[in-house]
Amino acid sequence: MTEKSTYDAASLPDLLPIYYKKLFPYGLYYRWLNYGGVPKPYFTNREFSFTLKDDVYIRYQSFADQQEMEKEIQKRCPYKIDIGAVFSHKPKDHKTVKAAAFQAQEKELVFDIDMTDYDDVRTCCSGADICEKCWPLMQIAVKILDRALEEDFGFEHRLWVYSGRRGVHCWVCDETARKLSQNGRTAVAEYLSLVKGGEHQNKKISLDTTRLHPFISQSLEIVKARFYDYAVKKQDFLGDEENQKKVLSLITDETLRTELEENFTSKEFEKDTSKTAWAVLRNHVDKKKSEANYKGSKYVLEEIMLQYCYPRLDVNVSKGVNHLLKSPFCVHPKTGRVCVPIDPKKIDEFDPMAVPTISEILEELNSVEKEDSNKKTKEFNKTSLKECTQVFERFVKKLEETWKGKGKMIEQSDMTMEF
Predict the structure, then answer these.
(1) CA-CA distance, 65 to 30, in Å (whole number)?
(2) How many CB atoms lie within 10 A of CB 67?
(3) Per the omega criterion (within 30 degrees of 0), is the bond before 136 cis?
(4) How crowded is residue 266: how many other Cβ atoms within 10 Å of its Cβ?
(5) Per residue in 110-147, pLDDT tens?
(6) Beta bridge partners of 56
(7) Which of 400, 406, 399 is nearest to 171 (CA)?
(8) Which end of the chain, N or C, is less surrounded by CB atoms within 10 Å?
(9) pLDDT > 70: percent of the chain
(10) What is the pLDDT of residues 346-383, one digit of tens each?
């Protein structure tokens, strides 16, 4: 994982005006959120919120068109932009409308996966910190959720975005997803949630069933393919007595747990402790399960693997139609990194530490502008934002193909470089 950053947070007020003027992809962004202008007020009734310098927070922003949005963003230079629901009325006019009449009507189905929710199962970092040893958790989360959203629910238009610091977001933009009620969103989120219980609950996965649901089986295939490299090699999750006790506490069969505790304390693991301990645990579990009087879980190993690797969703973010979520292409004020779209099919290649900071892309732009006077090339295509902007453009174009009668508009905008 690349470690590179020359970003100084104190410089953000000077950098944002240039970024919002030259690099923010307004055209693509508007094409996405306008959804072909059907229904007509879809964009104008969309809520945006701005977080300005010194944590000044402004809700219920809305814009008539792309030009007004550009003008307002460049005027205010928000440290963060959040996207909310499409309302029954223009959000900026909400004070002139009776509260009962001002209702959130539609919004993308969204998911928020944050690395801090894994603090009880990662040994390398905590809080907002991430590294190459724990980032595989985000790769596993994207693979499991993207597969399920596509294959189990049939959602075709999924925009994955790096949060700029310690997590990932997913925007499901199919019309059926945008029209889901709160109950519908909750049902999808609950279907995808296996990790249950708060920070004071030790065992968070219980597969109390004789046969696994196909969704769990397919999720396990993804986890099992990565578990040894992630948990054993990178996390050393059985590397000392404290971590061994944490794993053993997930085993409900008292006899099995006691045998393993005795085995772990009596056995001298001279090297590769996690490797040896995991092999011992697996062998003991398999042997015990074959005994006639075994009363524990049929899926002991699977429960352990899922507890340590399965995606941890903030269900409240997903179920609320009115919940706002950070916009793509924001700049994270603490890291300076841009919240870039990710190709989920290439998530194993994505390196969060290599995501460009605002300082770096403005330096790149400055260098290129001195040498290249081609005004037809979009400015973001002259910087490290090019690849992630192409991911976003492919997503938007695929979405546009579902809008009837929009072919001419797409061709014309491409010819005039109006993205």
Answers:
(1) 8
(2) 11
(3) no
(4) 7
(5) 999 999 999 999 999 999 899 999 999 999 999 999 99
(6) 52
(7) 399
(8) N
(9) 91
(10) 999 999 999 999 999 999 998 887 666 666 557 767 88
146, containing H or E segment: helix 136-147
Count CB-CB contacts under 10 A for residue 354: 13
Which tokens in the block code for residue 396? 């938007």
Tell me how far CA of residue 247 lies from CA of 195, 239, 300, in angstroms: 15, 11, 11
Please enumerate in sequence order all residues whose Cβ is within 8 A of that of 386, keeping only pairs 6 or more positions apart, or say none.
380
Q: What is the DSSP code string of 167-222?
A: EEEEEE--HHHHT--HHHHHHHHHHH----S-TT-S------SSS--HHHHHHHHH
| R_g (Cα) of the chain, nearest Å | 24
Smallest CA-to-CA distance from 114 within 340, 327, 312 is with: 312
**CB 409, CB 415: distance < 8 Å:** no
Catalytic residues: 47, 112, 114
The pTM (predicted TM-score) of the whole model is 0.91
**Nearest CA-CA partner of 114 in 141, 79, 132:** 141
Residue written as token pair 């081609």: 374
